[in-house]
Design brief:
By secondary structure, the protein is mainly alpha-helical. It is 43% helix and 0% strand. Helix 1 crosses helix 2. It is globular.
Amino acid sequence: FAQVVLILVFITNKEEVRTDISDIFTSKLKLYGGKNFTQNATEPFDFLQKALDCCGVDNGTSDWSGSRKRAENWIKLNHTWDVPDSCCVKVTVGCGVGGVNVTNSSKIHQTGCKT
């Protein structure tokens, strides 16, 4: 039910929602992929990336890179150069592998969700 409500909010106030969720995105990025954070961080983050056609928070795919160290749990899971599959234009299992280095916007969304 909550996802249906979020979709309706996105449809009517997409730009306003982007601003309101930016702080949430930043805090959830650190928790993404953590064993105990699936319902609180990973699933909502995936949902929003798909709904907003975006990747990461501010800097697109580079938010997920090991060098930026923003997605702490994700990096600990050996995804240093990967993005979540929810960043992909066409979401399929494994489509985000190596996605940090992909600059082709027809494969991986390049824009952060905050913008």
